[in-house]
What does this fold into?
Amino acid sequence: MTVNEDLLVAFYEARRPLFRIYEPDRISVVLGAGRPEEGDIDLAATARDQVPVLKRRGGGGTVVLSPGQAVVALVTEVSSPFRNREYAREIAGWIIRALERVGIPGAEHRGISDLAIRERKILGSSIYRSKLVLFYQASLLVDLDTNMFSRYLRLPSRVPEYRQGRSHEEFCTTLVGEGHVLAVSDVLEALRSAVERELPRLL
It folds into this structure.
């Protein structure tokens, strides 16, 4: 199964910008395009806990999705077949401003397309391109136990420089873990408002 593939299909039918922002209702592991299951995932753990292993279009590392996260998926036509890093950073900028509106300052761009607070990752993203079509997906860590990352994921072979050899738990943090008292629903609403406002203007 490919995550949010139906959103991409719907875009090709409607030919207008579409998005989906949601909290996952169960734990799953999602492979980036071209990533090997055996190298990225503890398959014995996922099998034991009956955690599904899914795929996604777009590159980037393998991730765990779970309740307590806010997932952003959007697809639109853009003016350039290139500029992937610029598009990713622009969308991440919307997320930074959305967080500021709910009282969460300090999120900054890190690596190619991450967001971090105090050098600890709170958001990772991926992009799939087909000519002028851009399909962006990201997961924002709001309120969850990050120990599950080491439970199901092996250490990745390629990491951003700012990770500096840290384990999953040392490298990642959550908005609640940073001291912000809020519900996932608050973050989802802020993200929806930001994407509704900004997506039609993304070129």
The CA atoms of residues 94 and 145 lie 26 Å apart. The chain has a mean pLDDT of 95. The chain has seven helices and nine strands.
